[in-house]
Amino acid sequence: MILDFLKTAVNLKNIPRQGWIDKINIANPESVADHTFSMAIIGMLISDIENYNSEKILKMVLLHDLAESKVGDITPGQMSSEKKKELENNAFDKIISNLPEKIKNQYFQAWKEYQNNFTKEANLVHQIDKLEMALQAKSYEHKGHPKEKLESFYTTASLEISNQSLKELFTKIINED
Q1: Mean pLDDT of the residues in the chain
Q2: Given this structure, which CATH class describes domain 2-175?
Q3: How wide is the angle at C-alpha 170 spanned by C-alphas 168 and 174, nearest 5°?
Q4: What is the pTM of this model?
């Protein structure tokens, strides 16, 4: 039962981040696991600096894209947000279904909290998601991908990041040469 969960998590290494393929034609983009790892580092750092519940933040980060191991990385415009949420919720329920009850309930609550974005921790994780996207976009820009094709990623991050520390980091990212 735990092994199935671990295999699902490991499969995130095989799921490419679809937005990089669709918008800038990267043949071998970062994986969802790569993205999650970077988010975990950012989440750990910011939650420790700002005295958030780091364990809660890290669990949310590690679980937030786990359903993509089953359904793939669905980007905006591929389907309605309601349909995407339904697919991901069903996949997540299956992923955690065989875990011990105590853990299953914890992970379900973290997932639900992130999905509904109704707590300060969930809101921070959503913003970290966008900051990490901007950081990755800048990495691709440094590798020679045209800034014009990356602008939509920077714009989205700019509009969705409100935490002061994350805003400062974002400003440093986009102003970096």
Answers
A1: 96
A2: mainly alpha
A3: 120
A4: 0.96
